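TEACHING EXERCISE
Course module: macromolecular assemblies
Task: Read the component lines below, then compare them to the predicted structure of the full complex.
Student: A.B.
Group: 4
Components provided:
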Amino acid sequence: MTTRQFGAPVQRREDPRLVTGNGRYLDDLGHTAYEAAFVRSPHAHARIVDIDVTEALDTPGLVGIWTHEDLEGPVGEHLPVLIPHPALIAPRTGRALAKDEVNHVGEAIVFVVAEDRYAAEDAAAKIRVDYEFLPAVVGVEKSRAATELVHDDVPGNVSAHLLQEVGDLDAAMAGAPHRLSLDLSIERSASIPMEGKGVYAKWDSDAEHLTLWSSTQTSTGVRAAVATRLGLPLAKVDCITPDVGGGFGSKIMHPWPEEVLVPWAAMILGHDVKWTEDRREHFISSTHERGQLQQVEVGFDDEGRVLALDVKFWHDNGAYTPYGIIVPIITATQLLGPYKPGTYRVEFWSLYTNTVLVTPYRGAGRPQGVFAMERTMDAIADHLGIDRAEVRSRNFILPEEMPYDHGLMFQDGRPLKYDSGDFPASLAKLKALVGWDDFAAYREEAEKHGRRVGLGIGCYVEGTGVGPYEGAHIVIETSGRVNVATGLTTQGQGHQTAFAQIVADELGVPLESVHVTTGDTRKMAYAVGTFASRAAVMSGNAVALAARNARAKALKIAADALEVSADDLEIEDGVISVTGAPDTRMDIGMTAVLSNPLRYAFDEAAKAATQFAGTFDPDKPPVADDEEPGLEGKDFYSPTQATFANGMHAAVVETDPVTAEIRILRYCVIHDCGTMINPMIVEGQVHGGVAQGVGGALYERMVYDESGQLLNASFMDFLMPYASEVPHVETDHLETPSPLNPLGIKGAGEAGTIPGSAVIASAIEDAEGFPITRMPISPVELWELRQRHERGEIPSLRRAHSTTTE
Amino acid sequence: MKPAPFVYHAPRTLDEALAALGEVGHDGKILAGGQSLIPMLSMRLATPAHLIDINGVAGLDTIEVADGYVRVGACVRHAQLERSEEAYAALPLLRQALRNVAHPAIRNRGTTVGSIAHADAAGEMPSVAVLTDAVMEVCGPAGSREIAAGDFFTGPLETTLGADELVTAVRFGRFPSNTSTGFVESARRSGDYAVAGVALALTSGDGAISAARASFVSVTDVPDVLDLTEVLSGATAEDVAARADGVIEAVRAHVTPESDIHASADYRRMLAAELTRRLIAEVISR
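Instructor-supplied answer key:
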């Protein structure tokens, strides 16, 4: 019996190659290519008065310099708004090179190509740009005040305004026995993948064909965007993603200016051109996320049940909105988590600032929403003196209420309707894992030794696997080798393993014979991309469907050759045999031979196939009317809606009574992403997600000064946590299958990150005895909060225990 | 993030190195471990016209332990000194401090003398140099000379070293045999530049403290020594806690921290004082 691969903790097949330095990332390609560098704006908001390249012209190795006025046609036009939305009333995008005005530090102004990157930077350093300074709008508060504008023609700095309401909120709020208000704030962070962006282009002037490689999360998107900008037929452009060293959302944005300019230069110059983003460029010219100010008003009954939830928030979208308003829409909808407030109203304003643009970063608006909701839950519990977990459970949507329709519109424009989940069961598991009910005793013991500890909790629901579709194409060779192509990209998720596990099971072949290709438009031209925790759901189901088609064809061919009914056949370990008569058999590779009537005897398999040649019928064509040569299967998976995963985290923290240093003692995760393809990979996703969640809670932030300078644009000062800062993650899983797809799976990619700030804030608040309303938090900030608390500027929690500050 | 053009010199002897340095003077930079210099070059924060790589210069990579000092050559890596059992036996503070210098990979390449010559007030080893009354052995076109640590540091990244001079070795002074030392720092992440750090030497006689000195990381403009003898004299492990207020007051008065994006000056002052208090309690009870 073949071992079932689906659900097994199979070790990642790609890792031996990647961890031994044999990965091929963007910068590993194109050693003879010219290289590009950019003159980027050192100012947050300015008019470009003059650009003088004279001094740069004699730089050794220089190939070319371009400013906006040199760009032809669509190359110089505004970049597209990828995801328009009716509420996005004032979309604005930048250009490949700035024209007349720059709106954030890092915006590209001059494009330089030279024989290598050193020479390109030498030339860039000699280019003089004169600016007329404009006032910089930095931070949500300044943008909201709108005394200065980012874009002259966008009043109030408001790009989008959206209000959604379910039920009669005002009446419910007025009638609520208790009401609380919270003012909350979350600062900016960013994806910061280990590998920055990069693009390499090769123009074949004979074939008039452009091949580009991009470190992207969507090769099909980049291909289409570049073809349009450069005026090339789609058939004359291909885009390939090599190994990608992480994306976390930053690389789903496209086309980046460099993705347009580098191929354009390759065509003009008739020479390969490459651009590899350096770390500083990534900090100031890629994308950030998270910055929001939030106001919550909640009305609830004596039991802590939410009767009315009224949320307003102001979202910092940076200088431009090429990716639309996906992030605040997700905040607005996913804020609800596992809860069912009696009535809900959410209103947001998406605001321009003179800072790096904002597009989804792992979690994509959910960490902010969960922060708002979970801070509210903790506040209700404290107000009523009810256990925090108990208040949550009283507001849960129950399993018997699934599917649950919130009456809101989700990010994909479809109803926010949860497919499945068992929140009470998840909470019970979490309480058991962290020892929720024993914590009071633990705290008492710790306090005897002068230690200050706290317990925090955070719950979330994550819409995953958004459409519209993914496809898969499977080709089985005569050797029995199975080639699987799916168009979405891979940036570390283990697709070579997970998709192969699915195909191995569906086809009944060994895992080793399955080979997966992703993100190559030559192999699969229709694809969306790897983001929104969608790859496993979308391509996972697509490869399963394609494999089922290939299997059906293999069985039909084998049934004809063996003169049995296909219903009597089974496939195990790559061998097709008659159930109960294992000697009547053929390898799956043999059916591939038989599928192709052109059968030059290249190999032993082809020779052996002659025994199954069947009776020659001169009245029939070699390939039947409803058949194609070859053993292949192709299919697409397109769901009606997203599938909703969920999870609950708890953390125990210790805060130093004097220095306010914060240490995470324990971090516990209950995770439900439906049926798991590979629990080891899911666990890895959770660990990585928690690392980014902890980073966002305690370490990372984008420190802009008033003039819009990013003060920590390097790994020296941007504090991405090291392994030494990431706690050991204790996990337990619940598998509530999704009824929406054949495999019952939900996405897992972003899960670990989402409740990080909520959980850590909850735990610190519990340790300190006063509310934590801003994240991230550093020791110095906690120390200052203690001083304000002592001065009476911050109230104590009602439940505040004996802990006192120095 | 690629350096501006520079001329690369790879001298094989000290004389060749000094000759090259004499020729280029202010236009040149010494490259030893490169852990501070290379990032500065890559970000074009420094654009020296000449780089004089002393890694190939013979005779600069030795550690010598003598009666009064531990002598460390200009090309001795942090890791080499950290792992030297002889150096540890003679002057435990070296290993105690070196363990806090960045990460192992950086210590494998970075040099102790280079980090002192770089004179970053956030560096651990300059503060060790002053606490041990170290002596810099310096060579230049005019010959060799010695500079006491107390006279060496003049400001952040500034020293009395001439542009055409090279520190060939540092002699860290050994403490009297009845001295215990310790080093502690607090960084936002393990291995980062410290928010505050302290090196401590407690000398005792008849079971009580007879002398106490401390130096600091990241909270003073230049590394210098705070003499805590008056505050701690006569204290024992049992009663040192009673001196805490005096220690905290002395440290707070001594340090001159500045605010940056990681911590305010007030926080750093508090932290330096608290770390010193805790370190004294730990060292005295060993």
